[in-house]
Amino acid sequence: MYSGSGFSDWEIGDITVIINNGVYHLFHLIIPNHDYIAHAVSRDGISWKRTKNALFVGEPGEWDDDMLWTMHVCEVGDRFEMYYTGLKRKDRGVISRIGLAESPDLLTWTKNTRNIFPIAPKGIYYETVATNPRTWLSFRDPFRFEYKGEVYLLVASRVLAGPVSRRGCVGMVRLTDTDYELMPPLFNPLVYDDIECPCVFELEGKFYLIGSIREDIKVRYWVADDFFSEYRCFHADVLLPQGNYAARIVQDGEHLLIYNFFYAYGRIDALRVLPPPKELATGPAGRLVLKSYYRWEQKVIKQIGQAAMGRPRPLFGNQSANLKAGEDSWTLGSRSGYEIFCIERPSPAFIWEGELSVEGLGKFGLVFDMDDDGNGYFVSFNRINGEVKMRTWGFNPVNNRENFVFKDLQSSFYMVSNPNSFHFRLLRYGHYIELSVDDEVRLTLIDYAYSFQNIGLYTASSTVTLSNAQLKVLSEPEEEYGSQEEEV
Q1: What are the Cα distances from residue 135, in Å, to 126, 167, 189, 258?
Q2: Weakest mean pLDDT among 21-25, 38-42, 474-478
Q3: Residues 150-161 as b or e (16 or more Cβ within 10 Å = b)
Q4: Are 314 and 179 in a shared domain?
Q5: What is the residue range of 191's domain?
Q6: I need a surface site. Which of 96, 192, 233, 290 has the fewest CB within 10 A?
Q7: Among candidate residues 238, 266, 297, the one where a domain is terminated
Q8: Distance of CA 5 to CAs 13, 50, 193, 480, 482, Å?
Q9: Are residues 369 and 247 in the same domain?
Q10: Is 189 exposed, middle or buried (0-12, 13-18, 19+ CB in 10 A)?
Q11: Same domain, residue pair 268 and 364
Q12: Is residue 6 part of a domain?
């Protein structure tokens, strides 16, 4: 993982990632000053170290002398281009424009001062200063995309008419070497205040558009048959659950990766961290699904089969609980009340996976990073309604009037193929948590609440069988504060 924290814990802003000669390059904003674009590098796409800063605000009087906002870095011919958002002090920072910087090596950047930059709206399709009821202008977050020999920029912008809080659209600019043309919005859903960090890509013959939504801090997506076709949503259109934001994609060989930053503790002014990427694939009816990053298997240093995990032990001594532990399966349950059955994790960094089968109409789920009093993380499965939820649950010693912790961290809905049996995969790496159900990532978050030794399952008026389980020990994570310089 990676956090750019210094004096402030929430320095990481919007991001872009590009891979060159096997090295992953991360560029990101510095919050809250927005005075430069930082650069970090990685050999595995997970652990990062800072290197030479890429771009700084302009000199007084220049069009970008106030702040730098979202950027997109891409390879074009024998050079690299960075399209970025700039603000000007004379405008009091309320007008965003699009500029360009160029580099031969991703390390040294020169701002392009051709006549067509910076690019600003002209009032043809999008709000301008004169037609902007919010008093601050969205024309930002560029994303470069080539289609049939033409070059386009997608831009987070707003249409000229409609309810003020629903004008957010994905604007579009066509670029040539000597000019630019404002085009009608690629997508105008008539529902959001802004569609931030728009991004488009082709996958399995369909075109997918993703955007980050400020209203609920989620990443959503839409699909079309062609780049210029109508973009449609699915009934479940959340690609990354709450807390994940500013997502952008990058091609990594045969793998299409999605990166984003994460708001820890659910607050935009709290710690921001760059989680490991996920992979994008398509599912039934062309919906997008998240897959776990392929490099996790490369970090496995030891595998432990279920027979070698030891016998689970109950924590609460529930008299109605029962346990039958064989070599390749455990069957455990409780007729009344809760019981938690635990083993000791082999390492703080691990993958735990297996097949879960459930009988009865009661509750069940996973626990991890738990102490012997039942303080830790709980993952609940609602197999009837297709919901998985993660929460912190335990004792609160600082408030005797509310001496419990019970906080939902993240939830996700999905289609249930078999309500009685499924495959789970729980990944814990540093403070990163990832849960897959039937090989699709459903929860992805970072949390710092617990780090105890127990992992296991809980039941309440249900019987659960865990079979064919494995524990995979991962190499230790590196420090997430990326302050050390790396040679590239």
Answers
A1: 14, 14, 22, 33
A2: 474-478
A3: ebbbbbbbbbee
A4: no
A5: 12-297
A6: 233
A7: 297
A8: 11, 11, 29, 9, 8
A9: no
A10: middle
A11: no
A12: no
What pLDDT does residue 155 have? 97
% of the chain exceeding 90 in pLDDT: 80
CATH of the domain at 100: 2.115.10.20
Sequence-separated (6 or more) residues with CB below 8 Å from residue 242: 216, 217, 218, 266, 410, 411
Q: Tell me, yes or no, whether 355 and 411 share the same domain.
A: yes
| Counted domains in the chain | 2
Report the predicted TM-score, pTM, of the whole model to 2 decimal places. 0.92
User: In the numeric block, which tokens belong to residue 154?
Assistant: 């997608």
The winner for highest mean pLDDT among 119-123, 260-264, 420-424 is 420-424
Query: Which residues, in sequence order, are bridge partners of residue 101?
Result: 82, 111
Three-class DSSP category at 1: coil
The CATH number assigned to the domain holding 425 equals 2.60.120.560
DSSP string, 158-217: EBSSS-GGG-EEEEEEEE-SS-EEEEEEEE--SS-S--EEEEEEEETTEEEEEEEETTTT
